[in-house]
Amino acid sequence: MTDASKNKFAVITLAVAVVLFAAGAAFFSHSHNEKTPVGETPVVTESTEPQPTFEHVDDPNSLSPTVERLIYFNGAQYRYRDDIDTLLIIGTDIYDQEENEEFRCNSQADLLLVVVFDNTNKKYDIIQINRDTMTGIKRYDVLGQYAGIVDLQIALSHSYGTGGLDSCRDTAFAVSRLLYDSDIDNFMSVTMGAVPAFNDLVGGVDVLVEDNFQGVDNTLVQGQVVHLQGQHALTFVRARMSMVDDPTNINRMSRQRTYMVALMSALGDCMQDDPDFAVNAFSQLSDYIVSDISTDEFEEYAERFVEYEQGDIIVPEGESVEGDRYMEFYVDDDALQQLIVDTFYEPA
């Protein structure tokens, strides 16, 4: 792969993450040669009336690979596909990347994107997970020792640990567990500080404001097309709890997808006008990133992002309810299982 191709991938990946929340993905700030095995095989049932055999794993030490992963679903048998790879993009709610020496850090996973590469059909889909999704995450005691699984918002999966690779691995585990132990091969996290920086590098973007930002950012006038610059871009993709009409994460996720379309258009114009745009963007934004991707793995992802067709952005169905203190999102389990079968499995 040429340096130009790598730099193009760096900015494309960055844009995919930034536009959907407050982050981007470009290269890697740490290398790790092992993939992240965070899935467990559902067990094939011998029942004469097959039922879904999706199960969650509670003990991370019990994970073990198998030769073939089979499930029954709606009366048919499926096997886990061996021609897909997954990349988890995590957008954290801190501005600058920093690691904490304590067993708790201040960062939460506000953006969760699972990029699923279909290596047979040469395409990739993106699963956008609501940060308020209630699911099992790893918890730790006051000494930082693993203490089991607790049901909380999936965003909190990143809050234990240093905020670096260990927190990312815990988030990857939570995402895998939510998706009934589907594999997460690699991850990269980026802080929200990348949003205004990258937004302004492309000259800002134009978006239609469909939500009511009154009292939050009065420059974002509902019903008007506005040109986003600097912190206004971050407000557009991040504002939630202070919003007038909808404090849930549903509207925000929709805004993130709107922003993606506009940013990708602006990015294309910049790359066409300036051959060095990708190099300059990477050099300015790489400090926002933590990842377990090795050099060889990066090159493989780079080739696929450039060569594969972008497919759907999939948002799992569910319901947002007001919890004791914060909003909670409960996935529609039937719809989620169907999504998992369609995405990660094939008829046996």
Description of the molecule:
The protein folds into two domains: 16-192 and 287-347, Nucleotidyltransferase, domain 5 (2-Layer Sandwich), CATH 3.30.420.590; 195-277, LCP protein (Aminopeptidase, 3-Layer(aba) Sandwich), CATH 3.40.630. It is globular and about 50 Å long. Strand 13 and strand 14 (327-331) form a beta hairpin. Helix content is 30%, strand content 25%. The strands form five sheets. Strands 11-8-3-4-5-12 form a six-stranded mixed beta sheet, with helices on both faces. A three-stranded antiparallel beta sheet has the order 1-2-15. Strands 6-7 form a two-stranded antiparallel ribbon. The protein has helices at residues 3-20, 165-178, 194-201, 231-238, 250-273, 277-285, 295-307, 333-344, and strands spanning 70-73, 76-80, 84-92, 109-118, 123-129, 134-140, 146-153, 186-191, 205-208, 225-228, 289-291, 309-314, 318-322, 327-331, 345-347. By secondary structure, the protein is an alpha+beta fold. It is built from eight helices and 15 strands. Helix 1 packs antiparallel against helix 5 and helix 1 (3-20) crosses helix 7 (295-307). Mean pLDDT is 78; it is low at 19-52 and 60-66.
Summarize the structure.
By secondary structure, the chain is α+β, with helices and mostly antiparallel strands. Helix content is 30%, strand content 25%. A 6-stranded mixed beta sheet has the order 11-8-3-4-5-12, with helices on both faces. Strands 1-2-15 form a 3-stranded antiparallel beta sheet. Strands 6-7 form a two-stranded antiparallel sheet.
